[in-house]
Amino acid sequence: MKKAILNLSFTATMIFFCQSLTFAQLDIPRPSPLGRVYQKVGLNDITIEYSRPGVKDRVIFGDLVPYGKMWRTGANAATKVTLADTAKFEGNKVAPGEYSLLTIPGKEAWTIILNKDSKVSVTDYDQTKDAARFNVKPKIVADKVETFTINIADVETDNANIELVWENTKVSFKMTTEVDAKVMKQIDEAMKGVSQMEYYRSAVYYFDTGKDLNKALEWVNLSLKEGEKFWMLHQKAKIQAALGDYKGAIETANKSKEIAIKEKSDDYIALNDKAIAEWSKKK
């Protein structure tokens, strides 16, 4: 009898253990799933990690998320922003590191806060730890956005817009990062021991950013001394045209086209044809 009781007890224990193990392995979707957005802006990297609640037939701003009160800008924990390098948010300088993104929604204006405590909650928020605090105006969007979304949009050479969108409300603020001074420093350093590609890339940068075109032409010519490439010649032609030397630009473009034909580069054949046709009208 005693042995039977022991066996029964052991069986019950094993059943409970197996049930507990089964429950521990359950993988159930979260009501507000985690989201992550990454973007390189210029030479900087920004990562935003946040939870994404849904509207679910509720009124959001002014009701579920009250006006005038701090919001963790998502669900569960505060939204975390990680910067690889210094950036400015609406002109406010923020050092590299991890920050919490908090907001105070309003009907006419939102307060955006980047706080140095990346794990802060609304209840233990300390304003003295703010790295940046500024106001922006919300916009009404026609199409309803069911799931809270953070976008990094309108990415340009040294800036992008951070967008918070939910229900029929969108809030946007600008991030800028230093590019020109850093690239110029790299170029100055590179010129101390210059390769063909460094001359070429520096010439491209000067051309694309509207700097000294004569210097760009000098550098692209130096890059061509180590061997003429059709894409380098095409870049030289564009610089010549920008300097108003359309005759020289057409001659260079024709040379680029000849090499492109040999290399079977249809893209550059077409690019040169288009450029020659355009510059022929101006010479």
- The value of Rg in angstroms is 29 Å
The ordered H/E elements are HEEEEEEEEEEHHHHHH
Overall tally of domains: 2
Mean pLDDT: 89
Q: What distance separates the N and C termini? A: 111 Å
Q: What count of helical segments does DSSP give?
A: 7
Shape: elongated
Give me the count of strands.
Answer: 10
Largest sheet: 6 strands, antiparallel
* Strand portion: 25-35%
The chain-level structural class is alpha+beta
pLDDT below 50 for ≥5 consecutive residues: which ranges? 2-6
Percent of residues in helices comes to 25-40%
- Strand order of the biggest β-sheet: 1-2-3-6-7-8
Molecular structure report:
The protein is of the alpha+beta class and 283 residues long. The chain folds into two domains: 34-176, no CATH class; 180-280, Alpha Horseshoe (Serine Threonine Protein Phosphatase 5, Tetratricopeptide repeat). It has seven helices and ten strands. It has helices at residues 2-24, 180-190, 196-208, 213-224, 230-242, 246-263, 266-280, and strands spanning 34-41, 44-51, 79-83, 87-89, 92-94, 97-104, 110-115, 130-136, 139-153, 159-176. Strand 6 (97-104) and strand 7 (110-115) form a beta hairpin. The longest helix has 23 residues, at 2-24.
